[in-house]
Specification:
By secondary structure, this protein is mostly helical. The protein has one domain (11-136). 74% of the residues lie in helices and 4% in strands. It has 4 helices and 2 strands, in the order ββαααα. The protein has a two-stranded antiparallel ribbon with strand order 1-2. A hairpin with a 2-residue loop joins strand 1 and strand 2 (9-11). The longest helix has 29 residues, at 14-42. It starts with a strand and ends in an 8-residue tail after the last helix.
């Protein structure tokens, strides 16, 4: 899933685009999980940042399962527990970015928490994809 060199230009492979689209579909499902839980947890009176952290982690776990079984099924190496631990650790960067955007959007910009959370999800998407491809589901290098 790495770019292919052609002369001086780098072209992305069809495999890269397929995995990106699958990752985006899984991400959309994660948005539903994330936003749904955020609303549900907040409706119980839980502070929005605590509700946000729980809903983000739940979406990370659901995304891992779907990405492991579908998006990157051809790239799995090692144990599922190892992949989950690596994926979850890498996603903490996305979680931190998501929470910062949620806080800034809600507290400082006066946005509804659901909208600020959605902006945070979008901001963290590219970071999460790059980290997933590069580190969580690394394709073993082939010997020439």
């Amino acid at each position: 899933m790495t770019p292919v060199s052609s002369g001086g230009n780098k072209l992305l492979t069809l495999e890269y685009y397929r995995s990106f689209i699958k990752f985006a579909i899984v991400g959309a499902i994660g948005v539903v999980v994330n936003e749904g839980l955020l609303v549900a947890i907040q409706s119980e009176g839980v502070y929005f940042l605590y509700a946000g952290a729980v809903s983000i982690e739940a979406s990370i776990l659901s995304n891992f399962v779907l990405n492991d079984l579908w998006t990157f099924s051809d790239r799995r190496t090692g144990s599922i527990a190892g992949r989950l631990a690596k994926f979850n650790a890498l996603m903490l960067a996305g979680l931190a970015l998501n929470l910062v955007v949620l806080d800034v959007g809600t507290v400082y910009l006066g946005m509804a928490s659901v909208l600020a959370n959605l902006v945070g999800i979008i901001a963290a998407f590219a970071l999460r994809y790059g980290l997933s491809v590069k580190y969580a589901w690394m394709k073993p290098e082939r010997s020439p």
